[in-house]
Amino acid sequence: MVNSISELEFSNDKSTEELSQVALLQLSDDAAIREKSSTGVPEKTGYPDPVYVMAANVFQGIRKEKSPEKVIIKYGNEPLRSSAQSEDETFRRLSYELAFSALKYQDILETILTDSYIFPSTTIPDHLSSLIIVMLYDFQDRKFQTRVLSENEEFISEVQEVENLLNSFKTKLAAALARCRIKHDALSIYHILPETVRKQELRASTLPLYAWINTCKISPEEVYINLRKKGYNEVKSVLHIDDKVFAVDQHCYDVLIFPSHLKKDLINIDLFKDYKLIFQDKSRSLAVHSVKALLNMDDDILMVNTGSWYTVAHMSILTSNNTSKIFVCGIQSQAKDPDLNLFKKMGCKNIEILRETFVNIESKDHRLRKVKVILLLPRCSGVGVSNPVEFILNEHEDTDLLRDLSQGRTSEDKLQVLAQQQYEQLTHAMKFTKVQAVVYCTCSVYPEENEAVVKKALEFQDYGVKVPPYRLSPPVLPLCSLKEIHLSTDKFFRMEPSEITNGCFLSILTRERDPSEAVSVKDVLARAAAKGLLEGIELEKSSKGEKKKKKSKTSLPKASGNDNCGIQMKIAEFLSGENKASTNQSEILTTKAALPQKNVMQVGSSTQVRKPSKPATNPLMPTLMKKSCPSRPWDQQTQFRRPRPEGKMVALKPVEIVLPPVMFPFSNSQGIRSQMPAPHFCRWIGPKTRMPGCLPTPLASSRGEKPKENSPSSLLRRPRPWL
């Protein structure tokens, strides 16, 4: 029982009156603030008795320990007896939130209790100290108003005792709170908290809600229609909007975003009651979508430290159209988490639970022979989430982390322990030889848990196995802003804590060859032959072919007898009037480019052709000179000419690249024709017609010499009017 002293004697009556005035002023100010800030949100009326009891037990396990000389309030080790209602999920969540709030203000609440003379003026059992702390926090949060009780509510004797005690010290508690505010020059006890914790609470109150669509039950289009019928409008951003709106996430196509103030309204609609929409932090959706982008149709997945079963369900929904199977490890028994029964309600069928912990699973386990991707969600500090309670309940259930998160930071010793565990799990995941990718995701902003762990694992990975080593791969998620592109320059995907999302770190490791290693053509052909893509083709095993190939690039192409006959046949086709020049144009241009460059010498802006010592330097000359000449001079055509109407002269234009002409023997000087190159073909111009601006074609008219018929030197000395 709690035995309180009926009257407390103060040394000065004047101070007692001043304290009462301060207390009344505090109550009036709080009431005025409450009236001004009322926007239809119901005032807090307190919690049911089982919530207080469970919150006291949680606080007992996470409270901050003090040195013996600084201990003012003693806490017992015996937990309070909880009722059957404590197993309810709603009661459980409320209890953790209340315990975490009391933990953040533990020092302030203890000061208020001692300053108001509740301690040591009353004889309070030690096992009730935790209950007094959590109920005092709720009492001041309700502005010291009386708790409203329902008729059918369960009453617990310990809770009733502590409540009566706090009500009897109501004025003194309010005065002690006012003095604490004045001492810290703070408007409220909220402003006494560290800045990191204040920012965290502010983000938690305004952070949008993220919910993914269960596409096994409903399509996204049906969800949009259903929401519009209920008065929700689709927008691009839900920030600073008080109306009923929603938006589609830019990174995950099946994730919707809602304003935070709509949560109470949303949880009561059928879409959430029937598991067609599921609330979950966006970081987990980013992780499962990254895995989905790396999968083939029949690849299996191993999920490690999944925390929330909703993450497993989301992965199952995304792979429902595949033949993939999802293995989940780390669950000791099915009774540990009753949410396993939700899989049937949500339509998940391809999930298998492994009872072993991840580090105890062998890399050659026959059950995991088809696993190609491992999703590793290691236990992390969680410094980067706005709501630590949601993070603990949904992901890891490690209440020890709440002690660090209540101060907005993690101790160095705790951080080193977490980083070592993460490194061991990541290196173990890299030992599975048939696995082709590992997705590593945390909710932390500490590099010690993120980049440092990944880089260390890559540096010390085992290169002895006969599989390609792991290398860092760029993100497979879309980068939707310049900030995201900047944060992902080193191939890590990062999201900093902000007003729209929690912090997130994501890394993808894939088995790939070093891109700096040159892959030879021989290796590529060998792989193709191994896959049966080169049936009937023999690969050259010696490197002589490569050497000959290199020499052939600098040597002249030799025309064989068959090639010459083919050329002569094409010339005959042109002479017969068939327009087939377009089909052979590429061969002609290739032949031109392959002519020897040593016979062309550029001096200033002119081009000169050296006299060859032998007339057979041109590969086309020997064959063409042996052929009989046609009887008509206008039949002296080559395959460089396209058919045109006779008697029509086309004005030619000079080109930038000039190649040596191909000459043919003629019976007399009257049949000699000069050639002029066009942009894509050459034309032969007769001597009877003279183009304006062109030199006469006979050699005698230009140099005063008589040409020698059938002489190679005279044939090569034709005038070049394009110069």
Automatic annotation (TrEMBL):
<dbReference type="InterPro" id="IPR049560">
    <property type="entry name" value="MeTrfase_RsmB-F_NOP2_cat"/>
</dbReference>
<keyword id="KW-0175">Coiled coil</keyword>
<dbReference type="GO" id="GO:0008168">
    <property type="term" value="F:methyltransferase activity"/>
</dbReference>
<feature type="region of interest" description="Disordered">
    <location>
        <begin position="602"/>
        <end position="643"/>
    </location>
</feature>
<dbReference type="InterPro" id="IPR029063">
    <property type="entry name" value="SAM-dependent_MTases_sf"/>
</dbReference>
<feature type="region of interest" description="Disordered">
    <location>
        <begin position="542"/>
        <end position="562"/>
    </location>
</feature>
<dbReference type="GO" id="GO:0032259">
    <property type="term" value="P:methylation"/>
</dbReference>
<comment type="similarity">
    <text>Belongs to the class I-like SAM-binding methyltransferase superfamily. RsmB/NOP family.</text>
</comment>
<feature type="region of interest" description="Disordered">
    <location>
        <begin position="692"/>
        <end position="723"/>
    </location>
</feature>
<keyword id="KW-0949">S-adenosyl-L-methionine</keyword>
<dbReference type="InterPro" id="IPR001678">
    <property type="entry name" value="MeTrfase_RsmB-F_NOP2_dom"/>
</dbReference>
<keyword id="KW-0808">Transferase</keyword>
<dbReference type="GO" id="GO:0003723">
    <property type="term" value="F:RNA binding"/>
</dbReference>
<dbReference type="InterPro" id="IPR042620">
    <property type="entry name" value="NSUN7"/>
</dbReference>
<keyword id="KW-0694">RNA-binding</keyword>
<dbReference type="Pfam" id="PF01189">
    <property type="entry name" value="Methyltr_RsmB-F"/>
</dbReference>
<feature type="coiled-coil region">
    <location>
        <begin position="152"/>
        <end position="179"/>
    </location>
</feature>
<protein>
    <submittedName>
        <fullName>Methyltransferase NSUN7 isoform X1</fullName>
    </submittedName>
</protein>
<feature type="active site" description="Nucleophile">
    <location>
        <position position="443"/>
    </location>
</feature>
<feature type="domain" description="SAM-dependent MTase RsmB/NOP-type">
    <location>
        <begin position="199"/>
        <end position="512"/>
    </location>
</feature>
<keyword id="KW-0489">Methyltransferase</keyword>
